[in-house]
Write a structure and sequence with these properties.
There is one protein chain. By secondary structure, this protein is mostly helical. 76% of the residues lie in helices and 0% in strands. It is built from three helices and no strands. The chain has helices spanning 14-44, 49-75, 81-94. Helix 1 packs antiparallel against helix 2 and helix 2 runs antiparallel to helix 3 (81-94). The longest helix is centred in the N-terminal third of the chain and has 31 residues, at 14-44.
């Protein structure tokens, strides 16, 4: 069996690279939003103190990831800065 390696790496032009980055961040934002909804649903349905602590940690972790992704989306002009400020306010009200 022969394995061939390319001598020069395949380079994407900057427009394609930016578009792929936008798609990736958008998908990760959707996943983080779903994870946040799942964590809130789990938190609302548990009574065991250990599980409550677990969901609190999970909520904090997912919120931090969601905020990071929002900042990245703003950095590449995927969403406007005003949307991030509104989302921060909503997330801070939930804490």
């Amino acid at each position: 069996m022969k394995i061939l390696f390319r001598q020069s790496p395949c380079q994407l032009n900057t427009e394609d690279s930016l578009e792929l980055q936008k798609i990736s961040i958008h998908e990760e934002l959707l996943q983080a939003k779903r994870a946040l909804e799942d964590a809130y649903a789990g938190f609302d349905n548990v009574t065991n103190p250990d599980l409550i602590d677990c969901y609190i940690f999970e909520l904090n972790a997912v919120m931090k990831r969601y905020k990071f992704l929002l900042e990245e989306a703003s950095r590449i002009n995927l969403i406007p800065k005003e949307t991030i400020d509104e989302t921060y306010n909503e997330l801070s009200l939930l804490n």
